[in-house]
């Protein structure tokens, strides 16, 4: 029996404790075989000091083969070590999803507020710089940096003889061009000759259509024959008896008739007759019945009580008005409406000429006038800048001159800003631009100074920077107390949208998948039976368990940093896959 308690090897013997460990290892190996599960029993090397020597058995045929036992022990130990190595490799290289904990979420009701935030540079909503366009000498400075000023208030005074001379010269050029243009425009108007009054055309010298005609050419006379005049001379003895407006009888011998007229004018000239009588002039006016014309002999008599006053001699009838029709501009004749003795009305077109040369002159002179006006404007502006007045009401942000300084053109001598109203130039990234609209309120924070603003514009044109497209937006900020400093950065937060009592899920629960109809948002519903709205996916989503989870399309709304709004596709209380939580390996 003592021999059965010990295992003999060539030259060595195992202790009882080591024998027990070997037996345990053998049991572990035999029980792990089809799954190759390796026992965690540690394997210990057998120290040489613990090996007990023994004499060889006297009869090998009746004892176990020592070499066979040793080989079995070595094989068992090797198998244990190999098993441990395989177990560690499997443990290390197997995907963590196999060992992770599946976390589900439940569709619930809640509220979501979507915000857009960022930084922007602040500036005064209205600011004006006074930059000189001419040189000069500073005489006085009336303000200092930080002063409040009103629009029109003088800030400084600079003198410059050259600036004053430039204004005078520019004004002369403007006046000269204005006069020349006026003459050309009058000439342009005279290319069409119109009757200055009604009457009859006489002594017509009509030009031919297509021929050129020069300025100052008399083409006809226009006589107003609706009335006629008659000059008569009377003795000074009747000077007190004839009055303006007095009725008279006009005798026309050629017609053997008398027509009524009246005294229109009395001139106390002194005509001496061959008989030595002194005579004065009386002009009579009479209506033309249509049968009278100029140069007809006529005489006028007036009554003094029962006495008839006769003129010294007969006179000749004259047209009431006669006008020479003279061209005021030259040109090529295009239309003629001139004929002797033709009756015309006031304003009627008599002659039309082309004026190509005049058109060119008007065009050139107009351009010269515009250039002269611009030069005058710039010269006056330069002079005004020397007598610098505040263009707006606000705060003097800078004043860079002092009396006695010689300043040159291009020098910015003062800056005035209205800091009661600030604007922020914000940049909104492409992910949030669709949420930002004009009129939205914005919370502003600059170094702990907080206030509110309003989005007043959002650009539709983006700029790319570091692979991200941003869109400019402008936020208006009321700043009556001056707490927001222009020219510095501040942060903004805009409440883009808000939904109350809406269905929500954690953001991780909504997956984006590719389908034949395009990209869709889905949730994986956890249920024992396939939902009617579930769809099939060609490519599985990593991490989602294969059993008990079905992809269902959903429509999403706004989101915040944690949750997303579900508009439709599932109902409240639905359990869905969220994510897999993994234990860290050490």
Explained architecture:
It is a single chain. The chain is an alpha+beta fold. The protein has helices at residues 16-32, 66-93, 161-189, 356-386; strands at 8-9, 12-13, 101-106, 108-131, 136-141, 148-149, 156-159, 192-194, 199-202, 212-213, 218-235, 247-252, 257-272, 278-287, 297-304, 307-309, 315-326, 331-336, 343-344, 349-354, 394-399, 406-407, 412-429, 441-446, 449-458, 463-465, 468-478, 489-506, 511-515, 518-526, 549-553, 555-559, 563-568, 575-581. Strands 4-23-27-25-24-28 form a six-stranded antiparallel beta barrel. Strands 11-14-13-12-15-17 form a six-stranded antiparallel barrel. α1 (16-32) packs across α2 (66-93) and α3 (161-189) runs antiparallel to α4. The relative contact order is 0.16.
Please tell me what the overall shape is. Answer: elongated
Biggest sheet strand line-up = 4-23-27-25-24-28
Helix count, DSSP H or I runs of 4 or more residues = 4
Helix proportion range: 10-25%
Low-confidence stretches: 1-64, 87-97
Q: How far is it from the N-terminal to the C-terminal residue, by CA?
A: 50 Å
User: What percent of residues are in strands?
Assistant: 35-45%
Structural class: alpha+beta
Task: Calculate the mean pLDDT score and round it.
Answer: 85
Mind summarizing the main beta sheet? 6 strands, antiparallel, barrel
Radius of gyration over C-alpha positions, nearest whole angstrom: 59 Å
Number of strands: 34
